[in-house]
Specification:
Layout (H helix, E strand, L loop, with lengths): L7 H15 L7 H31 L5 H29 L7 E4 H18 L2 E6 L6 E4 L1 H19 L7 E10 L2 E8 L6 H4 L17 H11 L4 E5 L5 E8 L2
Parallel strand pairs: 2-4
Antiparallel strand pairs: 1-3, 4-5, 5-7, 6-7
Helix pairs in contact: 2-3, 2-4, 4-5, 5-7
């Protein structure tokens, strides 16, 4: 039997940290924090599993398809890095720590996310179009938290389209520069938001989906607020929903 070692000082520190997490105003306790972590790492973990499986299949070819296997493993590494960064970000949001603001091009950050969405887009026959502001304007924000907002809103749009039939399924991510802010919109042509759900969409632990965790939009709004931006939604025309958010630009 392996021996067990106890470190009283570390245990005391861990207990103090757990008590702090359970009493935080920003995340309303350990249950909400755990739900936030589970929600935010679900998509990158799915991408890791999918691309690792693809890499194994390419290696099983005779002869092995090494270029394809390398590409799949590169996506595994990218998704793993994203998951690690998101974990740090969620912890920072929970502790109300200031984000790591930087100057970056939104277009580049969006392109980094697209491999995580390739599988659900293909599985549900959804066309994703991007129309980002010309001239590649710089954002002044936390790049990890920006990607969290975009990924959450895009995944919500994809999920809203899964039960749609009778018309092509489309998602449009667009942006425009409006003075000192960059305005982003994610539009889908799904069924739209039920009136009884609209007033609670941004409440933590509330979800209008049977398998939803109720954390994605709550996290998105916290990030937007922390940056001095906004997050809101409106009905799509003629179908679906449009979510808007703003972040400071240069």
């Amino acid at each position: 039997m392996a021996s067990m070692h106890y470190f009283p000082q570390k245990q005391d520190a861990d207990l103090a940290h757990a008590r702090h997490m359970g009493s935080m105003d920003g995340m309303d306790g350990m249950g909400e924090f755990a739900a936030s972590v589970a929600h935010e790492v679900r998509q990158p973990l799915a991408a890791i599993a999918l691309n690792a499986d693809a890499a194994l299949r390419w290696l099983d070819h005779d002869p092995p398809r090494l270029d394809e296997a390398r590409a799949a493993l590169a996506l595994v590494a990218s998704a793993g890095s994203h998951a690690s960064a998101v974990l740090r970000s969620v912890h920072g949001l929970a502790c109300k720590a200031p984000g790591s603001h930087d100057h970056f091009v939104a277009d580049d950050a969006v392109q980094e996310l697209l491999p995580l969405l390739r599988a659900p887009l293909q599985r549900h026959a959804i066309h994703l179009e991007t129309q980002l502001a010309p001239g590649r304007p710089l954002l002044h924000a936390d790049p990890v938290q920006f990607r969290q907002v975009v990924l959450n809103l895009l995944m919500n749009a994809i999920e809203a389209l899964q039960g749609t039939s009778g018309r092509p399924r489309t998602v449009l991510l667009s942006s425009r520069l409006d003075g000192g802010v960059q305005h982003f919109s994610i539009a889908d042509n799904g069924a739209g938001i039920a009136p009884q759900a609209a007033g609670r969409l941004y409440d933590a632990l509330y979800s209008s989906k049977p398998d939803g965790m109720g954390m994605g939009l709550a996290i998105c709004r916290r990030i937007a607020d922390a940056h001095g931006g906004r997050l809101w939604h409106a009905p799509g025309a003629p179908h679906g929903s449009v979510f808007h958010f703003t972040l400071p630009a240069l």
